[in-house]
C-alpha cells in the first residue's frame, strides 16, 4: 500500500482553468485571426460555427490562442488527531502574467529543488505544457518542477490520474467527472462545467465562480488519487477551502 505520509509533503494537486485570449473575434489581432482560421479549418465543426464563434468556444484549450485565469492547488496533511485532511486554494487574476508569476513564485518558495511531485488529470497533455507555454509567452520563469529539458522520463516528477487509469491503454480519454462517478466521489460540476468557463469569464464576468469550480476539481482529483491507491476518501469536514 502507498505510504501517503512519506510522499504527501512534496505532493501537490493542481488544476487550471483557461479561456480564449480575447473575449470576441473582433478583438483578436489580424495576424492571429489568420492563424486561427488555418487551425479551425482542420477542426470538427458539427454545429457549423463560423470562425468567430469557434474561436470563442474552443480557443481556450490551445496555449497559442488562450490564457490561464485560475490555478487550483491542494495538498494532504494531518491534524492534531492524526486524521487525514486536505487543504485547497485557487489563484486567480485577470492579468495572466500576474497569475503565472504568483504561481511560479509560490512553487519555488514552498518546494525546493526538484522535490515537488505534481498531480493533475490529463496533466501531461494539458495542464503542465499549457502552463509552461504561457509562462514563456508572459516572460515568467518556469519553476524547476516544470522544467523537462534534458530529463529522462523517470526523472520527471509528474503524476497524471488519466495516465494511471489507462494502465497503458493509448486509445481513450476518460474525464475526471466520469471517474468521480465510477468511484462515487461527489462531482465538481454542481455550479459550472468546463464548456461554460469562457462564457462565465467574458459574459457573466464571474471569475470567483470559475475559482470555485477549479477548487472543486482539485478536491475530486485528490479523492480520486486516494481511490487509485485503495485508501479512504478525506471526509468533507476535513477539507479546508481557502
Automatic annotation (TrEMBL):
Keyword check for Isomerase: no
Family annotation (Pfam families): DNA_pol_B_exo2 (PF10108)
EC number(s) reported in the record: 3.1.-.-
Keyword terms of this UniProt record: Exonuclease, Hydrolase, Nuclease
Keyword check for Ion transport: no
Gene3D superfamilies per the UniProt record, alphabetical: Ribonuclease H-like superfamily/Ribonuclease H
MF terms in GO: exonuclease activity
All residue ranges annotated as the Predicted 3'-5' exonuclease PolB-like domain in the record: 65-230
SUPFAM superfamilies tied to this protein: Ribonuclease H-like
Protein name as it appears in the record: 3'-5' exonuclease
Provenance organism: Flectobacillus rivi
Amino acid at each position: 500500500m502507498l505510504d501517503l505520509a512519506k510522499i504527501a509533503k512534496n505532493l501537490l494537486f493542481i488544476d487550471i482553468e483557461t479561456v480564449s485570449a480575447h473575449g470576441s473575434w473582433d478583438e483578436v489581432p489580424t495576424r492571429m485571426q489568420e492563424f486561427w482560421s488555418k487551425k479551425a479549418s482542420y477542426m470538427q465543426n458539427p454545429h457549423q460555427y463560423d470562425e468567430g464563434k469557434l474561436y470563442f468556444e474552443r480557443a481556450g484549450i490551445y496555449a497559442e490562442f488562450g490564457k490561464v485565469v485560475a490555478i487550483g492547488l491542494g495538498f494532504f496533511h494531518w491534524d492534531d488527531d492524526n486524521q487525514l485532511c486536505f487543504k485547497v486554494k485557487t489563484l486567480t487574476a485577470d492579468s495572466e502574467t500576474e497569475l503565472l508569476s504568483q504561481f511560479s513564485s509560490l512553487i519555488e518558495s514552498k518546494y525546493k529543488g526538484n522535490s515537488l511531485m505534481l498531480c493533475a488529470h490529463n496533466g501531461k497533455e494539458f495542464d503542465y505544457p499549457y502552463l509552461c507555454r504561457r509562462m514563456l509567452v508572459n516572460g515568467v520563469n518556469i519553476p524547476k518542477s516544470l522544467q523537462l529539458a534534458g530529463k529522462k522520463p523517470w526523472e520527471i516528477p509528474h503524476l497524471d490520474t488519466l495516465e494511471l487509469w489507462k494502465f497503458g491503454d493509448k486509445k481513450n480519454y476518460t474525464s475526471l467527472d466520469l471517474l468521480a462517478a465510477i468511484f462515487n466521489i461527489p462531482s465538481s460540476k454542481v455550479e459550472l462545467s468546463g464548456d461554460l468557463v469562457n462564457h462565465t469569464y467574458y459574459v457573466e464576468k464571474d471569475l470567483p465562480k470559475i475559482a470555485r469550480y477549479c477548487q472543486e476539481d482539485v478536491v475530486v482529483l485528490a479523492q480520486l488519487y486516494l481511490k487509485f491507491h485503495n485508501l479512504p476518501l478525506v471526509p468533507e469536514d476535513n477539507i479546508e477551502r481557502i
